[in-house]
């Protein structure tokens, strides 16, 4: 039997569509959304499947538009149609430069991580029957922690049968929070978790600044009165 000649050259893509997505029309700039990456966090341009979308942002008249009109608006502005809330009804989109949008999103995430990393939590441990000397010593430490901007996580540790004094431990933590009200606010009320009853305090910075500004204002008033005399 005769062998049929084998053809090992490149084959045309199925369906007649050019590789890499549709080519831009004459006069239309190449669309950055044509080659979509599976890791892309957002759907853009031709890949948005909704029939209509809600446009938001400062550079458009906000409202609901047919998808064709929204894409056309993005093309005329030489920007991208970005689906930012796909689960909304209809999906919410913005018209922006996609690369700049991704850069701003990454920058914002880095800033949020940096802020989260700066939060320091200091722990202070009490016994259910802590005496006044030990209490005041730890209270001073807590004031220092809150002044420097750290959170304070205070807890009473119950050993064995001391769990019977849990109400006494709660009273101790509430007294602790009350004595620190000028320096911190309660973020979490006393909660019993296993053998620990915990309370969380967040530093108060604004009141301290207000007090300083009041003091400076009083000093200025005194100096003006002395000058008048």
Brief overview:
The protein has 229 residues and is an alpha+beta fold. The chain is 37% helix and 23% strand. The chain has a five-stranded mixed beta sheet with strand order 1-4-5-2-3. A four-stranded mixed beta sheet has the order 6-7-9-8, with helices on one face.
Which descriptors apply to this entry?
Translation Initiation Factor IF3, 229 residues, Ubiquitin-like (UB roll), alpha+beta, 9 strands, single chain, 2 domains
How are the secondary structure elements laid out?
Layout (H helix, E strand, L loop, with lengths): L42 E2 L7 E4 L7 E4 H10 L3 E6 L6 E5 L1 H21 L2 E6 L5 H16 L3 E7 L8 H14 L4 E10 L2 E8 L2 H23 L1
Parallel strand pairs: 2-5, 6-7
Antiparallel strand pairs: 1-4, 2-3, 4-5, 7-9, 8-9
Description of the structure:
It is a single chain. Strand 4 and strand 5 form a beta hairpin. By secondary structure, the protein is an alpha+beta fold. Helices cover 37% and strands 23% of the residues. The longest helix is centred in the C-terminal third of the chain and has 23 residues. About 13% of the residues have low confidence. Strands 1-4-5-2-3 form a five-stranded mixed β-sheet. Strands 6-7-9-8 form a four-stranded mixed β-sheet, with helices on one face.
